[in-house]
Design a protein that fits this description.
The protein has about 80 residues and is mainly beta. The chain has a single domain, classed as Nuclear Transport Factor 2, Chain: A (Roll), CATH 3.10.450. Helices cover about 15% and strands about 45% of the residues.
Length: about 80
């Protein structure tokens, strides 16, 4: 199903836990599409993933920050690709 309109997934603030869980599951299957070395500030990794919510689907671009080798990735931003 194609994404259309400004509310790609038709969700709101009350859906945040469900969206977070869907992102968490999808990112585990998706490859890293870009890595930017920020020197002493760590790495920033782009991961593009396919997300489906209630029959509505789109590519979502996510950005993850990894401060150092011992730090887990931290989600910086996620937005649907138009």
């Amino acid at each position: 199903m194609e994404a259309t309109g400004p509310a790609v997934f038709g969700v709101g603030p009350d859906d945040s836990d469900r969206i977070w869980e869907l992102l968490r599951l999808a990112v585990r299957r998706a490859p890293v599409t870009a890595i930017r070395d920020r020197g002493q500030h760590g790495l920033v990794c782009e991961v593009r993933l396919w997300l489906e919510v209630d029959g509505r689907a789109a590519t979502v671009i996510t950005s993850w920050h990894v401060a150092d080798e011992s730090s887990p990735p931290r989600l910086v931003t996620a937005y649907p690709r138009p």
